[in-house]
Amino acid sequence: MVKKAKKVVKKAVAEPDTSAAVMAKVRKSAKQITTSSTAEYFAKNLQQVGFSSPVKAVLTTVKEALDNSLDACEDAGILPEIKLYVEKLGPGTMKNTDQIRIMVEDNGPGIEPDDVAKVFGEYLASSKFGRGRCSRGQQGIGISAATTWAMQTTATGAQVVTKTKGARKAFRCVVDMDLKHNKGLLRDKSTIDWARPHGTSIEFKLDGRIQLNGEGGILNYIRSTVLLNPHMTLHYEISDVPAASIERVVNTVPVVPQATEPHPHTMKLGEFMSHARLFGRIKTSVWLKRGFSRVSDKTLNDLVTKKGLKKKVLDSFVDALPDADFKALFAAIQDVELLPPATTSVLSVGEDGLALSIRRLGDIDFFAVLSRKPVICDFKPVQVEVAIARLRERRGEDNEEQVQVLRFANRVPLQFDKAACAIVKALTSVNWRSYGLKQPRNALPLGPYIVAVSVVSPFIKFKNASKETIDASDELVEELRRALMQTGQRLSRYLSREHKADELEQRVQHIEQFGPILVDTLGRILGASEERKQLATAGLAKILEKDTKGMKKDLAAAEGRLASYLEEKKSRLAGFFEGLEQEDQASVVDSEAAAPTAKVSKGKR
Amino acid sequence: MAKSPQVTRRTAKKQSEIISLGTELCERMLADLERAKRPVLTATKCSLDNSLYNPKVGFLTPGSKKVSSELNVSSVKKMSRAIFMLEILLRNVEISNINTKRELYYVAKGLVKHESKLRPLDFQDQDESDSVIDFICEMMEAYREELNCVADDRGGQTYSKQLVVQETELDGNVSTIDLSTLGTAPYQPKNRPQNLVLSAREPIDFCLIIESQGTANTLVANGFTKRHKCILIGAQGVPSNAVRAWVRRIQEQLRVPLYFFGDLDAYTMQNIYRTLKAGSAASLIRNSDFCAPEVKFLGVLPEDIAKYDLVDYAVKESDLQEGRALKKARDALSNDPFFKDKKNKELKAILDWLVKNKRRCEQQSFISVDPRDPQMMEKIIIEKIKNGNYID
Description:
The complex is a heterodimer.
Chain A: H1 2-14, H2 19-31, H3 38-44, H4 54-75, E1 81-91, E2 98-106, H5 113-121, H6 142-154, E3 158-163, E4 170-178, E5 183-192, E6 199-208, H7 218-228, E7 233-238, E8 244-246, H8 269-277, H9 284-291, H10 297-305, H11 311-315, H12 323-335, H13 351-358, E9 364-371, E10 375-377, E11 380-391, E12 404-409, E13 412-414, H14 422-429, E14 449-456, H15 474-526, H16 530-572, H17 574-590, E15 600-602
Parallel strand pairs in A: 1-7, 12-14
Antiparallel strand pairs in A: 1-2, 2-6, 3-4, 3-6, 4-5, 7-8, 8-15, 9-11, 10-11, 11-14, 12-13
Helix pairs in contact in A: 1-2, 4-6, 13-17, 14-15, 15-16, 16-17
Chain B: H1 15-34, E1 40-44, E2 51-53, E3 60-62, E4 66-70, H2 76-94, H3 101-114, H4 126-140, E5 157-160, E6 163-168, E7 174-178, E8 196-200, E9 206-210, H5 213-221, H6 224-227, E10 230-234, H7 241-254, E11 258-261, H8 266-278, E12 296-299, H9 302-307, E13 313-314, H10 320-335, H11 337-340, H12 345-357, E14 359-360, H13 376-387
Parallel strand pairs in B: 9-10, 9-11, 11-12
Antiparallel strand pairs in B: 1-4, 2-3, 5-10, 6-7, 6-8, 13-14
Helix pairs in contact in B: 1-2, 2-4, 3-4, 10-12
């Protein structure tokens, strides 16, 4: 831009007659360099945060509102009970869209009226940003983007009703956005009577299109959310789908672990120096021990004795430390040996919760669940959980479709950009054939299975701002692979027994089919008597009976392995079996620990 | 390599023999079943690793390797299908009915269609029924023609002004065909040339088998058979059973020198000429009647390229077909008992030369010696025969 201005000035010198006009142009172009607010940026780039199509606009809005509700309930220790309404109101203002009303209502702690504008009308206003916790929302972008989309497409803001505990009346208002200043504006404020003791309701009218089925469909999103939130009760009414309720299967609220202090090896120099400024006037040694995880007295000693850091750097006040000392300290601490970051900050659903929850996805034939211990991948704590279930209703159709993959990042379903995701890369790299599943080369396995994979970490590396794809780093993919392979081994106990039984049945059928034909044909060629044929038939049966003996033995062995696995599973998933016993003991015993039909109670509300 | 070069010349099986062989086999199987003993079907292994070559015999013969199939859960389907097909074939032999493999496939399909209990035997495609027929032939050590299963009459169009053929038909009728009365039309040998009796109206000097049917036609049209007392046959590529048995018939009944004239390339050498002269590994049990060990390789010979300044080509290994032929030639040099035998060292040398130099020269290139002379090819062929410029 400056170069361009210089060129224009040169031209002005060469042509003195028009110099005044040229100088005016230069001044004008200098004026064009402006700054924009965050809200203006996102308003122009909504596709980056999940609003790239009418279908995605609806799904992202539902997702952001539901995530906020779940996070709010968990933070307040409340078992979430959420209502979701999605309906078509008429044609939209944009081409090929409908006007959609989306409403999400929760029983969360409610929002103080003063905070409503920030929550729904301001970008990057978040209580969780950079805190290193495994919450669903992190940056405070999603719900504000939904408000922006509603304003842009229907010129309406977000209608909010909220009530905090103890308040007599609920606060109602419409939130608009002042994009220029990234501020929420409240209008039509009033207080109303609301039957709920506390909670929040958010409603948008926006242009979009409702997609119910398929990977990017709302119903798939609901199934996914239900799976990873066993403590949630959800009532939903979506377009033409009959209203339904999915009851919670766990009665405890997951406690999101507090964040641990940052690990020095995960920081850059600038971050390191900025971090110091948060602590005011304390000694450097104290700052290092308080402000970071895995820094001990021994570490401080090593910095001086092994890495040659001057002792006086550690004894100085951190706010007065010169840049050169900061650099020396940073270089030394990067070089010193430290324990890897702690894994206590990750939150898992747990095998019991997954086992109970997976039954809500449909008529499950059998399943295997696995919660890996938290590990460090790319210097960040990560926990991987996997649930694989076979759907009874789709079995036996010689199903050659790919398995249904449900991906989760911090318990939020990921529904787009599947191919580049770390989870899918790990899934396709596992040899599922060895566990009894069909799988084309370098592709997802086939069959009537749901494979749910959850990655939980306070610092998930997403590939884009809309958080649709987890970056496939080698360490994470390897951890995912291990989890998938372990789950595959558990699944193979069922499949191995089943394959052996199928094989035996096929062989018996084979004998029954071909045996009589062989004897009949031989008898016909030879003109043999009925007596001879009967004798031969009996002989043939004896011969082939011997052949199936070995297979029966194999089947018995596979059944034995499955039985001992089920015993082990019973003790491992004690919570799951207790839950089942309370619900329906008879069906559990009958199903060899497999799950009975999901109990999705349906009915018009 | 398999051992035991014990060879006995096989005589064609009569209908009654075939029927008794089939019923014996079935009797053995039924008796085994009655005693709850697993029946075993055994067949000669027809592959190169079970091929023997004895220059005194002159063709590839089977070694001692056998393929056995014992009745068990896995093989019960194969055995049921084999016995089902055997019943069809034996019935054909009994009533003197003839079918091609394709027709037998449809016969089997038809029987299955009309009898629901046979449905499990249904053949999905012809390959399945073909392999069952081949297995039966190998098991009974019978030619498929002896089981009245004949192939398409491909190749072997024959021209001669001296040859007389007497054919005994299945119903006993005898027909006599004097080839000199056919003008420029060829005589087409049938798939069962064993029923033919050959004689010559006057002494025949030689029999020339030409790889290309088109070239054979050209020579006849230009008066080759008028000028020479000979039999001229167009092989039409890889010789079919009919061609192989027909040439064998000529060798045995007329005792005339036989010459093969074809391209100089690896495919011709091992797939066409070797099959005509010594039979093939796939037809080990029938080579004794389906090859002519006395046939000589007239050319094109490698030295002909220089001698006649012939147009030749480089073989591109990147070409799928040519590349495959070269690979097969390399395999043949190390595994084929025909080329490994010292009697055929000159043929091996040609194959070596082809593999090493990667050149090929087509039979028609003789025309290029003097393109204005329509009899150029004929002159060179006769000159080569007279001068003994061929490989025995």
